[in-house]
Amino acid sequence: MWAYSGPKTLTSICREWGVDAAAEPGGEVDPGYLQAKRSLAGNAPVVEGSGIMRKETKAVKKVLKPWNRGLSSQSIKDDYFGEERRTEADLAERPELREGEEERGVTLERASVNFVKAVMGAVYLHGGRNAAKLFFKEHILSRHLEVGKMFEFRQPTRDLSRLCAREGFESPVARILSETGRASRHPVFVVGVFSGKDMLGEGAGGSLDEARIRAAIAALKGWYLYSPMNVVVPSDVEGEDGKPWQPVLVDGGEVIV
Known about the structure:
Helix content: 25-40%
Strand order of the largest sheet: 3-4-5
Order of helices and strands: HHEHHEHHHEEEH
Number of strands: 5
Largest sheet: 3 strands, antiparallel
Strand content: 5-15%
Number of helices: 8
Low-confidence stretches: 43-51, 53-64
Mean pLDDT: 77
């Protein structure tokens, strides 16, 4: 979600659309829209071009939070990016949380994000749901995300063994498929990981351990990186009777994002 519609992604989309930022717009901009000043990214103002902090910089205030947030809070009570969402009840209980709102400063990234969201809302408002879905598909979902590079297996052989045990498969066994130059300075080994008679993954490396680890990683990616058939999203069943939406199963175990 963050990779497709996060702040940095939406800022990049805004630049691709040719949207420019002006410090002082001219008369073509409605003064009613100029209600927020531009703030520099981060919390440490510096002299431009020098990287040195200004002497008059105020101490950064500690961000006040109404409670300690865990993974469950970030998934249920916060927004879809896990960022804290403060309600009026929180602000009523702790008025100090409102400190800083009078500055009304926004960064260029936040302004770019709001611009893309405003365009998306305008398309939905004036063009309808189908136009909004098509717009989202062409400008957001069309971006290529290499999910395979996001995986980080610290102990792939152990993870693969636990996966096979959980699914009721036979324990994985590594076997040499081919090799060349064993006695040379640059040998190459090709190892396959098998569960019974089924090969789960294949990997090549300069040593047997390297090839075995790569084969285990390939097996894990082959299990997790798949595209379900006939995926139905909630917006596909809106307004239709007799066609309830069913969520797609990602995995039977724990998924850490």
